Amino acid sequence: MKKIIVTLATVAAVISAKAQKVEFEEYDLSNGMHVILHQDKSAPVVVTSVMYHVGAKDEQPDRTGMAHFFEHLLFEGTKNIKKGDWFKIVSSNGGRNNANTTDDRTYYYEIFPSNNLELGLWMESERLLHPIIKQDGVDTQNEVVKEEKRLRVDNQPYSRILENVKKHMFKKHPYKGTTIGKMKHLDAATLDEFLAFNKKFYVPNNATLVVAGDIKIKEAKKLIKEYFGRIPRGKDVVKDFPKEEPITQQINAKAYDPNIQIPAMIAAYRTPSMKTRDSRVLDMISSYLSTGKSSVLYKKLVDKKKMALAVQAVNLSQEDYGTYALFGIPLGKVELNNLLKEIDEEIVKIQNELISEKDFQKLQNQFENRFVSSNSSVEGIASSLATYNMLYGDTNLINTEIDIFRSITREDIRNVAKKYLNPNQRLVMEYLPEQKK
């Protein structure tokens, strides 16, 4: 046993040694835009990215889907970029680009050869300063979003699980909705409402600009000031979301999916913000339970007892709250309640016994490896810098968050499991095939 532990510790040390500190510089423009610069000359590429502090939780209850809709709409064109030309400009200059939306933020980025830094900055400043938001663009993107919903949600098996979990977990907080929203809300939205959404949230003081890669810092600063410094500051965005009451009794629910033939079981617990230490401990617990074929739940329920086709534990951590979910698909005639009982046994073990030193060291190795991997590309670094700044309020977590994980003990794992993963604090949902009429 000692030999194994020593070997694992050595592996962790090697992984840690490979993790180089991410150097960056950050400052604010006079209009409130936060700027982060990271120089990496290992490859002749540059990332220009902007993260806006607007997501699905910022929408009106009767206008869901707006944040995700804007992820599409703001590629329509600008005063100086013709409709349909955005992607042509990027690809013709050797680049690629994309965007994504969550409940908490929206992120846009371009990756160019480093000699096109100015082009990337100009395009993102155009998105912010001169967007063209007209009815024809709204109508076009409405159909795009509807098609995306049909492909990713309406016709995908098990795709509505999170939607059904969230509406039970959150009664007051807007996390109870979905990122893609309801199509009837987008259909009902007027052009003036789209314009108002843009005016409120797409302002420099609600954004973080990251420029990373093969750059000259002095030159980058000059270009950033030229393209972004003249953009007017918007009104401050005030966020004041309602707080949820603790869950004190088990919630039992059922949901139906026309795209599945095999039912599933979900147990979900409301957990604290991703900014908390406890959330990181829950990340470790989920890895212990279900990361890889050697994990506790896989070995027990899929490999040995052959009770499950799939089993997973995941900590869905977000800015305001998290949702810790246990998920299983039974094998054969195994009943859902028996599958949950087997999973609960492993939760109780974590709550009452310290996990082994061997398993604990394995967890530490996994998180060291994730840390190194997340900073292995300039694209990943740019995203992490923006995220840590905007959602955590500490850009340097890109270097120090691993220290939080390193400080977690086996006792912490036991205590956090006791604190949050109890039957009276959860939703238990049977996710069933939709019955044919």
UniProtKB/TrEMBL annotation:
<feature type="domain" description="Peptidase M16 N-terminal">
    <location>
        <begin position="35"/>
        <end position="180"/>
    </location>
</feature>
<keyword id="KW-0378">Hydrolase</keyword>
<dbReference type="InterPro" id="IPR007863">
    <property type="entry name" value="Peptidase_M16_C"/>
</dbReference>
<keyword id="KW-0482">Metalloprotease</keyword>
<comment type="similarity">
    <text>Belongs to the peptidase M16 family.</text>
</comment>
<dbReference type="Pfam" id="PF05193">
    <property type="entry name" value="Peptidase_M16_C"/>
</dbReference>
<dbReference type="GO" id="GO:0046872">
    <property type="term" value="F:metal ion binding"/>
</dbReference>
<keyword id="KW-0645">Protease</keyword>
<dbReference type="InterPro" id="IPR011249">
    <property type="entry name" value="Metalloenz_LuxS/M16"/>
</dbReference>
<dbReference type="Pfam" id="PF00675">
    <property type="entry name" value="Peptidase_M16"/>
</dbReference>
<dbReference type="InterPro" id="IPR011765">
    <property type="entry name" value="Pept_M16_N"/>
</dbReference>
<dbReference type="GO" id="GO:0006508">
    <property type="term" value="P:proteolysis"/>
</dbReference>
<protein>
    <submittedName>
        <fullName>Peptidase family M16</fullName>
    </submittedName>
</protein>
<dbReference type="InterPro" id="IPR050626">
    <property type="entry name" value="Peptidase_M16"/>
</dbReference>
<dbReference type="GO" id="GO:0008237">
    <property type="term" value="F:metallopeptidase activity"/>
</dbReference>
<keyword id="KW-0862">Zinc</keyword>
<feature type="domain" description="Peptidase M16 C-terminal">
    <location>
        <begin position="189"/>
        <end position="366"/>
    </location>
</feature>
